[in-house]
Write a structure and sequence with these properties.
With 214 residues, the protein is of the alpha+beta class. The protein is built from 5 helices and 13 strands.
């Protein structure tokens, strides 16, 4: 068995749905000697699956570097409804007899979301307001006022569309929320939208298919 604190490097997971990124770190901690330093880079929501990079030992110094790497996601958005969490884990409100939108209409709006844009994070997020997590404040019914932040979206491609399910692939920079992107697209379409499925397929050179299963 390796000596304490002698294991250092990056460990790539293919995170399953239904658990938090912290849950994944806690499970991985059982694989290493006690007091081994562990940290994850780039939080994934419980609903999301895919690439989660863990830093082990001295590699925890690389956390900010890994978090800054470009990312690619695949998501399934549901049009014609909204969610208080902007995804299927929240309370969903379906529009009354929503008018289906065409693929052409969707494609015509996507250029608005490419490049350097201002994006308002979801109320249910890990960002802090006055020292408290936004999602904790939201669950308690407190005011959540998150300012829009600059993010970069390099590409958005429609993979498949059949009302109300819209399949997208998004390549983006650090800090981009796919939930916010889908929410804002739904607002521009006038029908609302929320994330039903989300998978991070790539972080820098790390791909989901090469990740370890828990």
């Amino acid at each position: 068995m390796a000596a304490e604190n002698s294991i250092h490097g990056l460990l790539v997971f293919d995170k399953p749905g239904g658990i938090t990124s912290r849950d994944a770190v806690n499970r991985a901690a059982n694989w290493f000697p006690r007091r081994t330093r562990l940290g994850h880079t780039g939080t994934l929501d419980p609903l999301a699956t895919g690439v989660l990079v863990l830093c082990v030992g001295h590699a925890t110094r690389l956390a900010d570097y890994v978090q800054g790497m470009d990312k690619t996601y695949r998501t399934v958005a549901i049009l014609g409804g909204v969610s208080d969490t902007d995804d299927a884990d929240g309370t969903i409100s379906i529009a009354m007899d929503p008018e289906p939108v065409s693929r052409g209409r969707i494609e015509s709006l996507l250029p608005e979301f490419r490049g350097a844009i201002e994006q308002r994070p979801p109320a249910y997020s890990a960002l802090k307001i006055g020292g408290r997590r936004a999602h904790d404040l939201a669950r308690q019914g407190g005011p959540v006022d998150l300012a829009a932040r600059p993010v970069r979206i390099d590409a958005i491609n429609v993979l498949h569309y059949e009302w109300p399910r819209l399949h997208l692939e998004v390549s983006c920079g650090k800090g981009t929320y796919i939930r916010s992107l889908v929410r804002d697209l739904g607002e521009r379409l006038g029908c609302g939208a929320y994330v039903a499925e989300l998978r991070r397929t790539k972080v820098g050179p790390f791909r989901a298919e090469a990740g370890l299963s828990l």
